[in-house]
Amino acid sequence: MPRAAPRTLIPPQPGARGGTSHGALRLPGRGGVTAPGPGGASGAVALPPRLRRAATGIETPFVYEFDRGMEPFSPPEPGFPAEKSSSVPQRKYRVLVGVTGSVAALKLPLLIAELLKITGLEVKVVTTERAKHFYNAQEIPVTLYSDEDEWQLWKSRSDPVLHIELRRWADLMLVAPLDANTLAKLANGICDNLLTCVIRAWDLSKPLLFCPAMNTAMWEHPITAQQVEQLKSFGYTEIPCVVKKLVCGDEGRGAMAEVWTIVESVKRILEERDLPTQS
Ligand SMILES: Cc1cc2nc3c(=O)[nH]c(=O)nc-3n(C[C@H](O)[C@H](O)[C@H](O)COP(=O)(O)O)c2cc1C
Predict the structure, then answer these.
(1) In terms of pLDDT, which residue wins out, 48 or 137?
(2) Model pTM?
(3) Which residues belong to the active site?
(4) How many domains are contained in the chain?
């Protein structure tokens, strides 16, 4: 499969933003329990083909059944417009969100809430340890994975390796925010945590979007541009940072793109690839 050309997404204008719709929520994240979506819909979701995950309780979510022979049945998502609720089940599109230790990780709950408004999207999150400092896991209504889960899951040869299962599961990866540290790791192939292992093993035929976020001084250091170019040369898509008054008080480029810009970029990529989205 040919690689995508290096690219930077130029965000659409705010007026181009679509309306809202429902998305089935998965609650709570680590329990793998499904719950009604905002429209009162049942939260039943299609299980991934290779990874049939049995929700076994809040503290032991990582029980997997492998079913390599059969595609699981995906019922039409409740709440689809009539033309979409045909006998052909609507395909779920799986987005894996990576979050790193930038202050912009404060926006993770909002980002996830907005992504879940896109019909047909299933979302999971992979976090670095530093990123955990910036958001409340209770506010993340999808499955959230971190380094501990990777090592808890694997006990013996027959156990699945979480970073490989996640790279198989995901159709699209969105790293938001991408801090300077993880940017440097990704540009150099370093893989010392769950997030960087998923990306090190990424299937380059699938889209990967990244949203840099850092202090202006870090952004302006010449190594940043080199590393961003390196990521784009892999076929990853940059969602550029913006000029803003930063939390540290400095004003300048380096702030993560606005959440609506990021969500519109995800929708655009899905549409470009002819994948179903409505919101
Ligand atoms: C309050 C605070 C805010 C930070 N914000 C940023 C940021 O916006 N961008 C960045 O590149 N690093 C930022 N850092 C530094 C990163 O958290 C640090 O480099 C960390 O090692 C990143 O780890 P990770 O890439 O594994 O998540 C911040 C640190 C602190 C303490």
Answers:
(1) 137
(2) 0.74
(3) 248
(4) 1
